[in-house]
Amino acid sequence: MKLSLNWAQQFSNVDLVPDGEEKLIEKIGSQLGEIEEVEKWGPRYQGILVVRVVKCQPHPNADNLSVCKIDDGGINADVKRDENGLIELVCGAPNVHPDILAVWIPPGGTVPSSLGKQGELLLEARDIRGVTSNGMLASLNELGIGDDHNGILIINPVDVGEELAIPGTEFKKLFKMEDTVIDIENKMFTHRPDLFGILGIARELAAIQHLTFQSPEWYKSEASFPQAQDETLSSEVKIPNLVSRFMAVAVKNVTVKSSPIWLQAALVRVGIRPINNVVDITNFIMQLTAQPMHAYDADKLKSISGSQNLSLEVRLSHKDEKVKLLGGKDLKLIDESTILITSNDVPVGIGGVMGGADTEVDGDTKNIVLECATFDMYSIRKTAMQYGLFTDAVTRFNKGQSPLQNDKILFYALQQVSKVTGGQVASNVKDIHGELSRNKEVNITADFVNIRLGEQLDIQEMADLLKNAEFEIQISGNEMSVTAPFWRTDIEIPEDVVEEVGRLFGYDHLTLKLPKRSTKPIDDDPLLETKSKIRDILSRAGANELLTYTFVPGDLMEKVGQSKDNAFKIANALSPDLQYYRQSLIPSLLDKVHGNIKAGFNHFALFEINPVHGKDLINEEDKLPIEDQRLALVITADDKTVKTTYKGAAFYLAKLYLEEMLSKFGINNLEFQNAADYEPKMNISKAALAPFEKSRTALVKTKDGQFIGELGEFKNSVRRNLKLPEFIAGFEVDVSQIKKLTDKKSVYLPIPKFPKVEQDLTLKVPANIAYGELFDLINNELTKQRPTNSSSIINPIDIYQPEKDNNYKNISFRISISSYERTLIAEEVNSLLDRIAETAKSGLGVDRI
User: Fold this and answer.
1) How far apart are CA 90 and CA 104, in angstroms?
2) CB atoms within 10 A of CB 487
3) Half-sphere exposure in the Cβ direction for 582 (13 Å, CA)
């Protein structure tokens, strides 16, 4: 955004540069936005003067040249003069004649339009067909202001004032060309649409210098439009959800020509090329207020629509509809999402982006229609990206302009059109809008602000800072009610007010004092601790952790049997292969197996800890997706390795990993239920189960029925689709459930000072008795019968089943008992084991060996 200081000062009620430009530039950088460039316009016109042409006669040796004598008021001391103090030069302009005021570039001066270009044009006194020419009389084009180079610029005293319309006046004083233009980085203003206009920045310049700004009366007051019936103008907005306000008015008898020099000079300084007086007014108002406007040739609108009445409608585009835009760009619309301005349903422009070539205002235009509207920022942004149309209007509309300013700006535009073109209002103003709600009050206390800023401002100081930027403030004690002005769309919550007070006060003025904070360390996150422990356990067991994309391609879901309809689809996917949120982790791991085996890794285990999402995982309270935390592991080996290393099914190897991991968390009372027998009403993710072969898969639960996850081997179709080896299995479990099952606080047990006593216990057990059942019985009896204030550990030693007798098996345990009070004797332990053996015999029918 380019800021002209002269232009800003013109619309300000206070001096915007009280401490000099350098101080102001410094404040802009610290309190408003990053400065990209500071451009001084005065030096490019150094030495260029207003002169009076005293004499003018044909060149004796050239038909199209004139020899002129000019009066510079005696200002330039370095040029040769005649006996009357006049300066001689040669001029080829057809409009030069005596007794006019012109602009003179003396010898030694540089033609402004050539500055910054290859081959800058430096003038010198030179002979032209036998006559010495001391410099040149300049055209608008040569002065770098407009495109007109058909004649020299003739100064009209009415335009510049009698006090400046005298020979010797510096040209840069005539049209405020002694200016400083500050280019402020646009991204700083993304949430501030008002700062894409010079009026908005002028307000901020005053406020950050603690000066009370007052917007021009026409910008604050309600607009009162004249009534006219010369033209019938009809308008319709068919998409009110995308066009919050649409205003239009017809103007008759305009004279389209080059703009006044002051207007062209103002636009050029901020980087806008002058076109004609009508277009230049719309650009001037856009640059001033940040509200884009558009002017249509009214007679061309009638011709296109085939009607004698003017009409403008707003609707969405049709697929493959064509629009011819300004600059000769023909556009074929690819969908039905573009906002179009039409006349009798014929497109005449893209709303908020660019006007159409068929209704362009040109030198033959006599009547116009002015449009001032507010378009949906997201729709404008999408259209600009789709078609590569990044105009000044797009820059402003995609920041979210306030519709509450449209009437004021259209009223001001009509005034300027009347003044510059002589046009008169020809129709009543069409104003189509829904409810235009005012900004809501935000209530805040001084303490709320001070705590967050680390300052001690009183409520009145805060109020004054905000009033400088034209906020409405009501104070009651230590509280105030803040209402943002209509052009501010970013003040909604108390924190917005805090930010505003801090910025206007100056963040560099805040007290450099750290707030008091407790030195007590924060509590550890139990979920993060659980994940960290899982990583440690599985990596120690030889598994390798992966971190894959949260998004997966739809064909991967199909290959593992998951439904894409149950997955959330990404509207703006990073790539065509990353369109869906994954519903489980297993597919992502399976997708990496074939590549690793092909790379030469013949056996490995992969695991991943990450969230998953699915339409069946919805929070019942707020109806939002649940971010389900999961752990998945896949163990595999190629056929050659299986023959030499592994025996048995892959299921049991995966089960070993799972039991080892859960046992480290103290979760040992597991139950494995055949997945083929599960009840549909159970809260089990069908997507997580989809890759598994149900007949070779178990649901992992605790014995009290708390579900942990699923463990098993994969379907033949999955192995075939992903080129997986036959020896492969895995599991996927709920990390949050693991955390929940281990949430009990650990009790610290010190190492006993007294020696432990170890005894082995071997039992002859019926073959139908499970090891876990026997272990639980012994553990329970040992816990009940061991000496008080003691601890015990049971370690399995061996399970042996004779080949000749399949009815029994021998299971051996090593039992360690330690007391915290005394040294135990062997007889105590032997007696304890005898009682345990008797209980096992009576309960399970086992015999001690």
Assistant:
1) 12
2) 25
3) 25
Give SS3 for 50: strand
C-alpha separations of 748 from 61, 733, 744, 745, 751 in Å: 113, 28, 12, 9, 10
Tokens (6 digits) for 133: 């020419």
| Cα separation, 589 vs 605, whole angstroms | 10
Question: What SS3 string covers 96-165?
Answer: CCCCCEEEEECCCCECHHHCCCCCCCECCCEEECCEEECCEECCCCCCCCCCCCCCCCEECHHHHCCCCC
| Amino acid letter, 580 | Y
Structure confidence by residue, pLDDT tens digits, 794-828: 887 887 887 777 788 888 888 888 888 898 888 88
Residue type, 153: L
Say if residues 135 and 51 touch (Cβ distance below 8 Å): no
Q: Which of 317-326, 428-437, 465-474, 667-676 has the lowest mean pLDDT?
A: 667-676
- Mapping DSSP to helix (H, G, I), strand (E, B) and coil, where does residue 837 land? helix
Return the DSSP state at 42: G
Q: What are phi and psi of 155, to 5 degrees?
A: -85, 125
Please give the Cα distance from 146 to 655 (Å, whole number): 82
pLDDT beyond 60 at 682: no
- Name which of 26, 35, 183 is nearest 508 in CA terms: 26
Query: What is the Cα–Cα distance from 58 to 67, expressed in whole angstroms?
Result: 6
Side-chain half-sphere of 27: how many Cα atoms within 13 Å? Answer: 23
3-state SS, one letter per residue, for 217-279: HHHHCCCCCCCCCCCCEEEEECCCCCEEEEEEEEEECCCCCCCCHHHHHHHHHCCCCCCCHHH
Beta bridge partners of 87: 70
Helix (H) or strand (E) holding 53: strand 49-58
Residue 601 DSSP code? -
pLDDT confidence band for 515 (50 / 70 / 90): low
Rg of the chain in Å (alpha carbons): 42
Q: Distance from first CA to last CA of the chain, Å, rounded?
A: 93
CA angle 202, 440, 30 (to 5 degrees): 35
- Give the 3-state secondary structure percentages of the chain, helix then strand then coil, rounded to 5: 30, 25, 40
Task: Convert the pLDDT of each residue in 765-797 to its tens digit.
Answer: 888 887 778 888 888 888 888 888 888 888 878
3-state class (DSSP) for residue 187: helix
- How many other C-beta atoms are found inside a 10 Å radius of the C-beta of residue 124? 11
Euclidean distance between CA atoms 486 and 437, whole angstroms: 9
Beta-carbon contacts of residue 57 (< 8 Å; ≥ 6 apart):
66, 67
Strands (E), 381-429: 424-425
pLDDT of residue 681: 45
Of 633, 625, 544, residue with least CA distance to 586: 633
DSSP string, 799-828: EE--SS-TTEEEEEEEEEEEESSS---HHH
Do residues 690 and 556 make contact, with C-beta atoms less than 8 angstroms apart?
no
**DSSP H/E element including 35:** strand 35-40
**pLDDT tens column, 184-242:** 988 878 889 999 999 999 999 999 999 999 999 999 988 889 888 888 899 999 999 99
In terms of Cα–Cα distance, which of 503, 504, 467 is closest to 482? 467
**Pairing mode, if any, of strands 310-316 and 424-425?**
unpaired
Amino acid at 659: E
Q: What is the 3-state secondary structure (H, E, C) of 337-393?
A: CCEEEEECCEEEEECCCEEEHHHCCCCCCCCEEEEEEEECHHHHHHHHHHHCCCCHH
